[in-house]
Request: fold
Amino acid sequence: MKTYSSIVIGLTLGLFYFLAVHDQQVLENKTQTAVAVIQAKSGSKVSGKAVFKEQNGKVVMKASISNASPGDHAIHIHLVGDCSAADGKSAGGHWNPTGEAHGQWGSASYHRGDIGNISIGKDGSGSISRSTDLWCIGCEDETKNILGKAVIIHAGPDDFSSQPAGAAGPRIGCGEISN
Ligand SMILES: [Cu+2]
Ligand SMILES: [Zn+2]
Reply:
């Protein structure tokens, strides 16, 4: 009887362990996340972050910015995940893996990094969301992978037409995309 109980307890524990490990793996395959913590650049006081979550082939981004001047500020993904320069220029130009012209997200021609403009209110804060299957987090396809790039916030708005970057002015915030 004692042996029988031990076997039952042993099998039960084994089953729970199997389910726990299995669930963890399913979860890891399902959701990838990445974050860009925004550092102030070019003498600004800007702070904030962009959070990326990938699920079922889509990446959802939510970016929140504080301590910026009211109005529209361009937000882009730039090519290099390096925010070391005081003016943010170390992040290079716009991430443009498909070799298109700069433009408005979803229009005929635009960079994969052309997120758009964040609208900042009187309190100095604002946010923007994007959901797209054109990005991935850490996949093999370099036309989609956002890891190792940088999120840049500009002093002015993106006009969606000037080449090569929308004439959005100095870089006031920069965050490397990592997970
Ligand atoms: Cu930019
Ligand atoms: Zn662009």
